[in-house]
Amino acid sequence: MKSLEELKRIKEETLKAMDLRQAKDRGKIVVAMGTCGIAAGAKDTLMAVIDELDKAGVHDVQVVQSGCMGLCDREPTIEVSMKDQPSVIYGDVDDANARRIVREHVQGGQVVAELVIKRGNL
Amino acid sequence: MKKLFSTQIVIPVDSNSVLQGALEVKHLLEETIRTYNLASQVSVVETGALGIYDQGVVLAVFPDDVYYGNVTPSDIQEIVTEHLLKGRVVKRLAIDRSLSSRRMVEKETGKSQQKIVLRNAGLIDPQSIDEYIARDGYAALAKALAMQPGEVIQVLTDSKLQGRGGAGFPTGLKWGMVAKEQSDEKYIVCNADEGEPGTFKDRLILEGDPHSIVEAMAIAGYATGAHIGIVYVRGEYVMSIARLKKAIADATAYGLLGDGILGTGFSFNLEVYRGGGAYVCGEEFALLESIENQRGEPRNKPPFPPQRGLFGKPTVVNNVETFANVPPILLNGSEWFRSFGTPSSAGTKVFSLSGDIVNRGIVEAPMGTTLRELVYDFGGGITGGRHIGFLQTGGSAGTVVSERELDVPLDFSSMKTSNVSLGSGVILVASEDVPLLPFLAEVAHFFWHESCGRCTPCREGTLQVKTILDALVSRTADPAALQRLSRLMNTFTNTSFCGLGQAVPLAFESALRNFPQVFEQALAASHVPEASAESV
Question: Which residues of A, range 6-65, sit inside 8 Å of B by Cβ?
Answer without folding.
Answer: 7, 10-15, 18, 20-24, 30, 33-34, 46-47, 50-51, 54, 62-65
